[in-house]
Amino acid sequence: AIPESLVIGFIVTEGSRNPLVFVVGVFLSNFPEAMASGATMKTVGLATWKIMALWSTTCILTGIGAMIGSAIIPDSGLTGDFEVFVKGMEGLAAGAMLTMIAQTMLPEACEKGGGLTGIGCLLGFLSALLVSL
C-alpha cells in the first residue's frame, strides 16, 4: 500500500494525469485481495471487528501516504533525480500489485475457477490497459 499511496499523491499534485484512473485501478486490484484475505481471516477465527479495524487502518495509512506523496513533490515539479524517484515508485507499485496477484490470487483462482481463469485475467488486464489509454 505504501508505494501505491505515494504514487496517488504524486499524480494528484503533478496534475498531468487523471488520478481517478490510477485510484480506480488500485481499488480494482486491491478489493479482491482484501475480500480473499478477509475471508481467510474470518475462517481462522479472527473477529469481524478486528478484520474491519485492520482494513480501516490500512485505508487511513493509504490516505496518509498519498498526503506524504503530494507534500514531497518540489515546487519545480518532476524534474531530474526526483522524476527518476517518482518513476521508480510507480514501477515498484505496479510490481507489488502484480506480485500480490500472481502469488496469492491466481493460484486459488485457477484451483477453484478452472481454465477460464486465465481468460478472465487477460480480459481484466486488457480492460485496465484500455482505461489507461
List the helices and strands and how they pair.
Layout: H1 2-14, H2 19-43, H3 48-71, H4 80-113, H5 116-132
How would you describe the overall organization of this protein?
It is a single chain. This protein is mainly α and 133 residues long. The mean pLDDT is 82. Helices cover 85% and strands 0% of the residues. It is globular, with a radius of gyration of 17 Å.
Would you report the number of β strands? 0
Q: Element order, helices and strands?
A: HHHHH
Overall 3D form: globular
| DSSP summary: helix tally | 5
Output the structural class. mainly alpha
Measured between the Cα atoms of the first and last residue, the distance is 24 Å
Percentage of helical residues? over 70%
Instruction: Please indicate the percent range of residues in DSSP E strands (runs of 2 or more).
Output: under 5%
Largest sheet properties? none
How much is the average pLDDT?
A: 82
Q: Over the alpha carbons, how many angstroms does the gyration radius reach?
A: 17 Å
| Low-pLDDT sequence parts | none
Quick take:
About 85% of the residues lie in helices and about 0% in strands. It has about 130 residues and is mostly helical.
